[in-house]
Amino acid sequence: MKRMITLQVNGDTCEVAVEPWHTLLDVLRDQLRLTGTKKSCGIGTCGVCTVIMDGLAILSCLKLAIESQGHDITTIEGLGSADELDPVQQSFIEHGAIQCGFCTPGVIMSARALLDKNPQPSDEDVREALSGTFCRCTGHIKTIEAVKHAAEKQAGAGGTSDGQ
Amino acid sequence: MARKSNPYSVIGRRQPKLDAPLKATGRSVFSDDVYLPGMLHGKILRSTIPRGKILNIDTSQAMRLPGVKAVITHKDSGGIMAGPDQQVLCDDQVCYVGDEVAAVAAIDEDTAIEAAELIKVEYEPMQAVLTIEEAVAKGAPVLHQYFEDNYADEKDLKFGDTEKTFDESDHIRTDEFTINPTHNCFAELHLALVDYSMPDKLTIWTPNQTAILIQQSMATSLGISQSKVRVCSLNTGGAFSGRGTVRPHHLIAALLSRKAARPVKIMADADEEFIICRSGGRDKIVLKTGVKNDGTLKVIEADFMHDCGAYVETQFIIMTIVSANLQMLFKLEAMRYRGRLVYTNNAPCFFHHGGGIVPAQFALGQHLHCVAHDLGIDPVDFYLHNAVGKGHTTLSKTYYASCGLKECIQKTAKKSGWKKKYGKLQPYRGIGIGCGVMSSGGKGMFQHDTSAAFLKIDEDGRLSLFTGLPDMGQGSHTTMAMIAAETLGISAEDITVVSGDTDIAPFDVGAFSQRGTFTTGNAVRAACRDAKKQLEKTASQKLDVKPSLLVFKDNKVYPRGFPEKAISFEDIVFDTLHSQEGRYVMGRGFYNSPTQKPALAYSFGAQIAEVEVDPETGIVRLLRMTVAHDVGRAINPLAVEGQMDGQVFSGMGQTLFEERLVENGQVLNPSMAGYKNPRPFEVPEIEHIIVETIDPYGPYGAKEVGEGPIACVPHAVANAVSSAVGYCFRELPLTPERVLEAIRKKNRQQ
Questions:
Q1: Which of A47, B264, B274, B459 has the most CB atoms less than 10 A away?
Q2: Is A142 in CB contact (< 8 Å) with chain B?
Q3: CB atoms near residue B391 (< 10 Å)
Q4: CB contact under 8 A, B473 and A79
């Protein structure tokens, strides 16, 4: 039996009808057509579907839609603005940290959540934050470099409003 | 990183991928992002046993479930083949756990799953054959009616007099190796969305690395003409040699769509992915080498067996790749090779990243490491002594017009500090070298290896480049834009690459056999030269100079030596159209390398790995990789480094972690949690060394970098672990269990 729920996604309020077993990922993609968040394993092992919920990087394939009510959700479409990309996005582009691009939204969201909590992460912090994601093409070498560079650039620009 | 002087404006720049902003913002469209009106979801019912007869299939309950729009079995697909030995849906027999038996299409995924579970299949189990040894044993059940035994294919090669050269050798060594099954781990799982609602056109969206082969195979299997099949490639979430063929799920989606007269999407779930993927199968390799006391290699004899599972595709290429790896890297006087593909009742295998390369290079590396050790020669000296060079012709009569192998070995040795480290490191630290060779081009699939390209230039001087070459993330579309930009003297950002639709793009064999940069690059260059000739006519009239004296550079055209007389590229294009002739500039070109061999150009590499082994746990930590690759010329050094990184990652994964565990035909670890892969904490420091040998046939001298570097990784990493523990490994991957066992064996010997 479907029920109506209200989700806060990228600053918008969205009403959707969901089955109790529908995941946040299902709703983001199939109903809200926010297809930037990709579906891969569907069982929480690859990190491709990572989004930010209340400041934390979470796996949207393991979060039920009904328990996502009342939380602030950001997807890859919610980063940056019409005029300017998020520093993490910009850094990924410049450092060659994107190849096939399928895992990229999940990796970028993991990195964004890290920098929001910890604007000056160590090498170990970056590796830990990206450990939940899997990137076969880049082997994470240039993604790690890109996150560190984004942190430096962000620090130079005065940090983020969400920073500690 | 030292680079030779670069005479070009665009080639050689660290160019971020042109499509990276779309990918960074989630705007890039992949096949699963396509939602069509009226789209249904398909689900395949798969065999639960490795071998058996199908006695009955009852679909009545599934058909009655509300929301179900089509159910198909072999009665609907009779006679349609998914491969040379495989029917789309099994008729009277199943050959592996996961074999396709029936399928449904329903209004949503939940209903499709429920309906598939309502189909009742009655089996009579038969004796299954699950290992190479069982399959080749006398009296083994013959698995396919088309054959007299379980050998699906074989290849015998003999160059020179092997018996004589073994007799002349001072030292002969034989080793036997086993390589365990693997999985490709694509980020984007297998998926087919097919719209065959109307009988006159079939459109398919599916991740792939060759639209043309998908188109041709779909058309052939379904008995329709090729132009009735439209393949939309969009973006592809990883290919790694494994997305080049039509599989049952493509055809099943088509049959369901035709029956329901609505589009049907089938996407694998995590368990199915390990079945559909068809990655690396189990291999057995026996190597025997004859060598002189001074370290001169004389002869290699090899016996290779590959468990290809229940069905074959084009794995004859694996046999070729293994033989090539053994005789194209070092100078030899003779070589004998026997390769065999063996049918079993395991899930069908195909190519893991570097199909056949990783198994061959692991075995060759460990074997030669031991040969060098037996002779008391430093491996770097041993490889330099035997390395092929420019102008060398191999035993298989392949000629090297450019070759940077020795330079790669010397540079990695110097950069890594090899002489200070080899044999001098503290206990359980090791250093190892690996070398590799790779072709740029893939003759053998067809008589030709053609890529075509065309382009149009609009009034504002911007160019649209049409290519059938897919970009699976390797950055080929950016590379093509850079080659076009350099040839016409404009910038890469002025170019839109149009691809991914067989109704629009020209013919291209596809992105495999490392043919993209070399073959399609040459086609793009030819198309640009065709367009340039048309522009030269206008420019030479306006500047009153012979066409041969014109320079196209930095979006300008000027007589050589007179940059102050420059006219903008845009004006030349505009004037060509707004003339009495009214010429609209369109260029076209194609390239098929003029050789009977698989390729005209070959790239070479060397890598040095440094590892630390924990003697308590057997865990290997890869600390550092020094990676050199002879790419001919680096069109885009940023992308070249990216290719090196990805292949180190994949190669170290296959060497140290990755093993698809199979028991009674069942995959025991079908998830990224159970199937171990390196993650960010495991990736090493990487030093990139780009070696440029400027190949005479490559576009601007370029060769490949798409698969060459991975050849060195298992070779180097396994040799480093061997050095660390003083033991020759004979089974891949080098998991902690195997490394610990090696340490214990070694300690018992002492």
A1: B264
A2: yes
A3: 10
A4: no
